[in-house]
Write a structure and sequence with these properties.
It is built from six helices and twelve strands. It has 217 residues and is an alpha+beta fold. Strand 3, helix 2 and strand 4 (60-65) form a beta-alpha-beta unit. The mean pLDDT is 91.
């Protein structure tokens, strides 16, 4: 996102008249969420100042500062002491969506499980991430696999939206520090602990100046 992120962190870039992070906080508050943990790495002091304690939105916000970016799993693992013992929702700070966050309250996950929201593959990620069969998330099958059934061939890959609900035990045994989420998701798939659903509404990964401009256009 440079040069835009030279002066501001990605979650504070303006989208349709307000910082991207403000969209998330406001819509999650409207959906009944009142306690937030916001991870802040690049230019994290700006994120902390913007969030404050959350009182201006009528919510409670704690900011989990990362001295170095801890990646998609490392940031969650560091924030776990603030998240309690019940399942919690995670929304990536660099996406724009109209997903109905209220439904996140209804997504039950089993012990050590997680529930992912999947979307159609965007142009910049045509291969996708996973396959959804009913509510069960699977690994995509290789086109070189000779023994795929017609039903398996009909399953199309989808992209993980960055919206999910996790049981805290999903991260049990994960070592703190810089850590990607994908290996943990792969392990959960192998153990049958990962469910999901497909969302067809508005969703964009605000990962380049061009995609940001398209949303604001």
């Amino acid at each position: 996102m440079r040069p835009l992120t030279d002066a501001a962190p990605k979650p504070l870039l303006p989208v349709r008249g307000k910082p991207l992070l403000a969209h998330h906080i406001e819509r999650l508050r409207e959906a009944g969420f009142t306690d937030f943990v916001v991870n802040a790495a690049h230019l994290g002091e700006q994120v902390a100042e913007f969030c404050g304690d959350g009182s201006r939105w009528g919510v409670h916000i704690q900011v989990s500062r990362e001295s170095v970016p801890l990646e998609t799993a490392g940031g969650i693992i560091q924030a776990l002491p603030h998240l309690g013992d019940a399942p919690f929702a995670v929304v990536n700070g660099d996406i724009f969506t109209d997903f109905p966050f209220k439904t996140l309250h209804e997504m039950g996950v089993g012990p050590g499980g997680a529930h992912l929201i999947l979307v159609a593959n965007p142009e910049h990620h045509p291969a996708g991430d996973f396959v959804l069969n009913g509510r069960r998330v699977h690994q995509p099958l290789s086109d070189k696999c000779p023994d795929k059934s017609p039903e398996e061939k009909a399953l199309e890959t989808l992209t993980f939206s960055g919206i999910a609900v996790y049981d805290p035990a999903f991260f049990a045994g994960a070592v703190p520090g810089k850590r990607p989420l994908k290996p943990l998701l792969d392990k959960a798939i192998a153990e049958g602990r990962l469910s999901g659903q497909y969302y067809e509404g508005v969703w964009s990964d605000v990962g380049t100046p061009e995609r940001l401009a398209a949303i604001n256009g």
